[in-house]
DNA mismatch repair protein MutT
Amino acid sequence: MNINPDIPATTAVPGEKELIEEAVALVASYPKVPITVDCVIFGFDENELKVLLIRSDLPLFHGKWSLLGDFAGDQEELDDAAYRVMRSRTGMDDVYLEQVRTFSNPKRHPGGRVLTVAYCSLLNIEHHQLKTHENELHWHSFNGLKDMAFDHQEVLDYCYKWLQKRMQEHPLGLNLLPDKFSLRELQNLYEVVLNVKLDRRNFRKKFFSMDLLIDTGEYEDDVPHRPGRLYKFNFQKYEKNQRSWIGIDF
Amino acid sequence: MNINPDIPATTAVPGEKELIEEAVALVASYPKVPITVDCVIFGFDENELKVLLIRSDLPLFHGKWSLLGDFAGDQEELDDAAYRVMRSRTGMDDVYLEQVRTFSNPKRHPGGRVLTVAYCSLLNIEHHQLKTHENELHWHSFNGLKDMAFDHQEVLDYCYKWLQKRMQEHPLGLNLLPDKFSLRELQNLYEVVLNVKLDRRNFRKKFFSMDLLIDTGEYEDDVPHRPGRLYKFNFQKYEKNQRSWIGIDF
DNA sequence: TCAAAAGTGTTATTGTTACACCCATGC
DNA sequence: GCATGGGTGTAACAATAACACTTTTGA
């Protein structure tokens, strides 16, 4: 790289400055598209999977439910944009967030072509108070949702499938629970999200055998029956022992 | 919807036409970004994983290898754009292609901000002849690749991890082999891509027990040793018997 | 006849499923 | 004392991992 960009290395070869100008001109000549991020924010409450929604602020979709989203800033990394959306609308921070997929149907926005990159987030409803209730921002039951704004139904359905798959391979779901949880809560979570019925003893055996639950020594409170032990998840140990080879399974 | 858009349903409420105009104006007011698709096209030849590359045509990256990519058309679905890239540069068609991830680092293109959506493709090198060799388009060994143009090294590494994971859950890898293949070829493929050593007898048992291999009755040819039986993969049967619940495994 | 890979079974171990009874607590 | 869910063990079964010899072909 030249120290002084005004003096090219040789007179025959263009300097880095010229090359960059050329690249800038090239990029400027290409079609551009508005980009949004849309956040599918899952929660778990009262034994139901919930998703954080607002009323669409686009009059064309008056009354319809919409995911939380916003246009991406000019020089903004999309992960940052997704975090910004979460923070600005809910005050939530430091949560699990992951890019899931980009939706590019040219008809997906009635105002013209808009790409959206879907992000999926999982958080514990109790630990994060909504900072606003503008546009009826609220936790909506995942089941029975239909006829959302834009292509948000499709985005949501895709993210739900993603969640189901991902939860079986990674301890994602624990982000939906409080820090301390009973095994019953954990099992309910898996049963509800994966839509299966699991054997209680086998479920316990499975989780205990992974040796990733830390017994807090504490017990549930305010339950109208024998209280269960409360556990924490050992995320540290999990991170350390990542398996690489699993097996062929299809 | 109004039959005649010039006469709103009521005088107080704006008609659909006005709402759409409003949406169009809104979209027009937002920042726009150029979008590209980049195709990571994997092949398998001489017992090595290969990837289809060209020399970057951006002078700034003179001599560096680049994925096949192009800007997305104004009203083009990104899947279509990825297909177009494959077809226009290689003549290949009707191949496995899937969106993997969007890369949005604002610094990833020296000419300014350009988003790219990475697609991953798997095909059999023998069955698809390159239609051109412009820009040194060729099958490059995956191993030992480094210092590519743009962030293409990162994109490629991400797609490789994606491939490894995906190949264990779906019979993706078969797209890399000829229609008829021996079990040795199949095992080599898995060993190379997943970078593991597998027991031959257990590997056979595994695949036969899935009952998805069709014995063609034919045998290898031109091998300097006892020829192996050739099989086809029963994609139809596989598609029909998709499992929904697998299990908790992490 | 040699080299090279094809083809083939058994055993030990591990993980998974199915299943039923007593226990602790709140009401 | 009763309703509710907590907590526990075992046996059958399925899947996986480890391991070695004979067969077939081309050269």
